Amino acid sequence: MVSFDGGWTAFAGAEAVIEMHAAAGLDIRDVAAEAERHTRVRAGADHHPLTWHGGIAFDPAASSGRDLPAVSFVLPSVEVRAHGGRATLAVNIVDGPGASRRRAAARAERRLEVALQRLAEALPPVRAPIAGRIRSQLPDRRAWMDSVEDAKTLIAAGVLEKVVLARTLDIEADGPLDAVAVLGELIGQGTLSHPFLFEPRPGVAMVGASPELLCRVNAGRFSATAVAGSAGRGHDALEDVDLANGLLLSEKDRSEHELVVRDMSERLVRLGATPTVEPDPHLLRLKRIWHLETRLAAELNGAGHVLEVLSALHPTPAVCGTPRSAARFAIAKLEPFDRGWYAGPIGWFDTDGNGAFVPALRCARVHGRSARLYAGAGIVAASDPAAEWEETNVKLRPVLEALGLEAGP
Question: Annotated catalytic, 287?
Answer without folding.
Answer: no
